[in-house]
Amino acid sequence: MTAPGKTRRLFLLAAILAAAVVGSLAVGAVWLRPTEVFTAVASPSESTNPAARTIVNELRLPRALLAACIGAGLATAGTAYQGLFRNPLAEPFVIGVASGAALGATAVILSGWQTLVFGFLSPIPVGAFVGAMGAAFLTYSFAAAVRSESVAGLMLTGVAVSTLLNAAVWLLMAWNDQELARTVNWLMGSLAGRGWPDLRQTAPWIAVGTAGVWALARPLDALAEGEEVARSLGLRVRLVIGLVLAAASLAAAAAVAAAGIIGFVGLIAPHIARRLVGESHAALIPASGLLGGILLVLADALARTLTAPTELPVGIVTAALGGPFFLYLLQRRRV
């Protein structure tokens, strides 16, 4: 596909994401007319319906924007892991990174640690990042130690690491049963109650992580051909692997710290993006990010409306979508 063709498709995805965000503002336990949504967003001070203004500007708009950011972060991380491990089934949930981030964030939450790290960093994203990095290196190291190069090998290693880390999470919760209900709700993946402060805390981390992955697009193209090919091109393979892991894990950790474990966004979005823009990471990374944002915004809108006024955790919706997609990929590749 030519570069202009890819650019047009990226602009189309951006337009679809914007439309999904705007459309999600109208749905939920209280449905709003398009005119009410437009007035509340375009002229909030002149809105004739104060309730609609509050629902749109204080509840749904920050939540939709946060869903777009989290979806983009998870999808970008999934794209990076798939390129790095040369494995189409790699994504934050499958290879254990999400569980590692959950362990780090849960440890911070249950410890009651509120002191800013280095005077300006919120402790929960820092804990999630440390956990995500640890999980990524564990999965990569264990897979390398057993010399597992098959598509199923990394997946099984990630499942093992994820299981161990999840066990640690539940152990922490058992020791702190007074926080059990709150932590379980967070682990299911939910955007309920999220607002502007959450968006302000999360968006910069995801932006840095996704920008870092995008900056490494050309090295990822080389690594996708194999480490020997990358070395022959003069690439410092270990350094690049470390940078990709750090950037992708930062994006995934920020997403998990904000909304809990939301699986399969990082698996579905990159596969659809490849059909649209091809394998080159320069176009694949932004396309995956936009598709991830679209997917999570729509999934969150669905979670708010399916059983209204009761709200489903969005992690349940993405799992319901991602599970069959994952099985389809396994069947297609015969692994």
Automatic annotation (TrEMBL):
GO terms for biological process: siderophore-iron import into cell. It comes from the Bacteria. The chain crosses the membrane at residues 63-81, 93-114, 120-142, 154-175, 239-269, 281-306, 312-330. GO terms for cellular component: plasma membrane. It is found in: Cell membrane. Gene3D superfamilies: ABC transporter involved in vitamin B12 uptake, BtuC (1.10.3470.10). GO terms for molecular function: transmembrane transporter activity. Keywords: Cell membrane, Membrane, Transmembrane, Transmembrane helix, Transport. InterPro entries: ABC_BtuC-like, ABC_transptr_permease_BtuC, TAT_signal. It is a multi-pass membrane protein. Belongs to the binding-protein-dependent transport system permease family. FecCD subfamily. This is Iron ABC transporter permease. It comes from Limnoglobus roseus. The lineage of its organism: Bacteria, Pseudomonadati, Planctomycetota, Planctomycetia, Gemmatales.
